[in-house]
Amino acid sequence: MVKYIVLVVFLVLKFFTLDNCFFWDNIAGYSKPASYLLEYGFLSFVYPPDYVSEPPLAHMYLAALWSLFGKNLLIAHLSVTLFSLGVIWQVYRLCEKLNTKYTPYIFLLVLLEPTLSTQLILISPDVIMCFFALLSINLLLENKRGWLALSAFCLGMVSIRGLVVCAGLGLGYLVISKVIDKKSFKDAFFYVFPSFIPVLLALGAWFLYRKLETGYFLYQPGFEYQEHRELASLNHIIKNIASLAIRMLDSGRIVVWILLFVAVIKMGIKNFISFVIHSRLSIIYLSVLFTMSLVTIPVTNPFGDRYFIVLYILLALITGQLLSKIYETKKIRVIFISMILVLVSGNFWVYSERMSKAWDSVLCHLPYYSLRQEMIAYIEEQGIDVNDVSASFPLDSFFSDTEANTDNRSFSSLNLDKSQYIIYTNIYNWNDESIKTLHADWKLQKEFKRGLIFIQLYVPK
Known about the structure:
Blueprint: H1 2-15, H2 25-40, H3 57-69, H4 73-96, H5 103-111, H6 114-119, H7 125-141, H8 145-158, H9 160-180, H10 185-192, H11 197-214, H12 234-249, H13 254-267, H14 269-278, H15 280-296, H16 309-326, H17 329-345, H18 367-381, E1 389-391, H19 399-403, E2 412-413, E3 421-425, H20 432-441, E4 442-450, E5 453-460
Parallel strand pairs: 1-2, 1-3
Antiparallel strand pairs: 3-5, 4-5
Helix pairs in contact: 1-4, 2-3, 4-5, 4-7, 5-16, 5-17, 7-8, 7-9, 8-9, 8-11, 9-10, 9-15, 13-16, 14-15, 15-16
């Protein structure tokens, strides 16, 4: 019953977000590529250098819907809402596999994790990736290798991150077959490998096609995010490790780690190690963590909370299962409710303006959409040309890409020395020097603020 209640509540809440535009990386990662395919044809998935280089399945899906029903925000929202419902369903199926009578509590614990609950209401291809990841995990646990082949194919073709998660699932499946099911390595390999042949063939064909078209397997010259795809120095690797640790603990997730640590202490290290060795979910978690770490820690790309959404889900499931084993009925319910409340509060863990925040992973960013519209309306009322106003990410995209319409206006590129007007918001995550320069050399003309979010218009002093 609880899953149906959650599905209905989600749909009601989703209804109030249907006017929200594309946000943050979803503009470059979902809207722009789909628009490009819609304009130049569905086989034009080797994008220009200034586009994100990703496998095209999600982009082709959205472009097809726009082609059939018209390019607008409603269709974009519906494209993801179907998968949001699927994520909720797959989470419940995983909870049922824990064999505990506290399934409703663990179900809510997972769904109310800030990154997951926020991503579910955005127009985000990460929701599509998350659905196929969870579906693949359920199929893996059920040894439905034929359906797993199809799900893994979709997972790997949605995004590079989906490919990395897919690799982690393949590794985890191999370890499970070897360690838990006691197969020889040869038997385990030939048992697992066929399920991942379709995705490997598809990705191989995609990489080869890119090579033939551009001369490069992945990133061609002029790639806009090239500085984020370099090998990191030792100092940068250390910073990445620290950043990964912070991501795991931020937005209320620290409560999951604390309770996991308490569970380990109560059951004993030896029993915990035995649990991990015999827990399929734990092996999958460690395998995905390993593959994700391989592609995030050694490179310069800054990573956000949503990168690890599958890990957050698995960790909450594993922790919930452990807690249900070691605590009595009355106490465990109090613990679960307390954990849920802390996670919900994580949506409002906003730090100093000078500290960056993964705004697409916390619900407190929601006022941004109406504030953006209010600022645009104010600029138009004042007779200010939009092109005379400078903005930064994520406000610097064409309105047509942000709002899925035909409005080809955009704010100009940011120039703190020459701009006539500057829009500033705490959504930007600017560095200290830029914020200092703005406050020193510019004067506030107008501010719109709601909740923890503000958008300001500045003119030179």
